[in-house]
Amino acid sequence: MVGSQDQFFIYQSGWQKFDNTQLKQINNILNNKFKAFQDTLFKATQINWRSIPFYNNDKAKNLQIMRLRKSAKDLNPLYFLFDPQEPEDLIYLDGTSPPIYKANEVQGLNITKENLIQYLYFFCIFVHGGEGPFLIVNKLQYPFFKSNTDLKTQIKAHKFPVQFIEENEQGHFLLEAPVLYANSFFKATFLVHKTGMIEMLEDEPIGTLREGCQYQPIYFPLLNQPQTIEHIQDDDNVIKFMEIKELEEREKVSEGYHKEIFKKYINVLKPRRGYLPLARIHSQNIDHLLTPLKRDHPHFISVIDYLQQQLMMSVLLDKGTITPSPILIEGEAGIGKTRFFHDLAKLLSTHFECINCGNLTAGFELAGASMVWKTGKPGKILEAIINAKTANPIVMLDEIDKLALDGNNNVEGPLYSLLESVTAKHFKDEAIGIECDCSHVIWVATCNEHAKLPVPIQSRFERFKVEKPDNKQKIPIVHSIYQDIITENRWGSAFKEELSQKVAIHIAESDAPPRLMKKILQNACAQATTRYHMANQLNRGGKINLLTDDVTNIEIPRERSIGFI
Questions:
Q1: Directed axis angle between helix 256-269 and helix 380-388, to 10°?
Q2: What is the pTM of this model?
């Protein structure tokens, strides 16, 4: 994918060379301050700089951007912000927003209507989500649109490319733009503060690229590149998770399967010297952030209100680190407890890991089994954090009341320390045998009957009783599940983006719980496809529209009592 000068303005032109004296000075600074980048620095054959409009005016210092490339075709350069008068204060652009916010605060920023859109492009390229940058689509000539003509038409129907909406009373700017993130397109509404902070207020799905049409982004910061210890320790966005030297020492004396386990952990932790990043929220508008949860899970309002208070505390000092207390949701099966937490993880841009407690039979499944035994391996908790590559994933203990609490295998034993932040900070997995900081894990759990849990475990959670949704609450849930279905399945693009209200009400008025609604809607999609096929309408270019007649055989499973039939 080749970006235009408007969108990828930092790539196309305006790059200048340092003179020999400047280049020598820059190299010395880079090698002294960023020693862990030396492999890239030594191979960098092109070090250039250019000015950027919002940092180059009377009201802001002359901040510039520097690019280090191994060759002219290098798609993964290193980028830094720097002041030519104080070049030693380099700011590495690592794919997160704090470096940019730091530059805005320290160096000064002057956003005007003239440079506003360029600042938005700049911010979206250099601040990533878990799956890459947010690329603003400003033309329809990208190669992948050739096999996605329907998607191209949909994007054209929205405000395109970037539309300035208004400047509010506080001097903040509101804009709309189509955004490509991972392989999905969204109509995004941005609020750009005068301070440079950007909030994505809305992200309405437009469509997804067909499989095989993945694009190659021009720029992707080296998020996992090692940094100097000093740089890491000064970063509020990371915590020391584990001593990497101890891990390497244990790997040296291990063999076979166990050696591979240690290598996996080293590959994740060594680039950051044993540190892990923390998922953070940057939006000050927590109420707006949680709007999708309120819409799609209206019967969880008590939980959402609690989360809102917790998240407001998270941004109180402008740190934004997500650290809510453990949450336990009690409710009957099928009301959408798992789906709620999965959606919460997506909203907070952190990893989601579900542990089915009904399948656990011993404490070592959570806390690891010593590698003295041939079958010894790390437990599910440590594995969740390593797989997440972040220190505060959401770990859900599903149906925690089904733990085998018979007093023999001590399944719940590890939870006593893991659910307390003080002791979780020094947690030791039996297999790895090294202290690791699990105090930032976001613990959530579900149960049908909390009374089955030991009182000490109950006391470690904030408990909420969630009832099954009424018919009115079910309507937005049906719409949300339909959206999930057409987004998650390849065949979903053949269906209309919106489910008719009539069909939604029809399903909502059945006695089906949220879990069963997904099966009902999937069967309805199959029924509608058959109907279109029989009517020879599949190849006429229109989208399949579900009708109430497609929703058939709504059978609600009933618990069967013991006795004769």
A1: 40
A2: 0.58
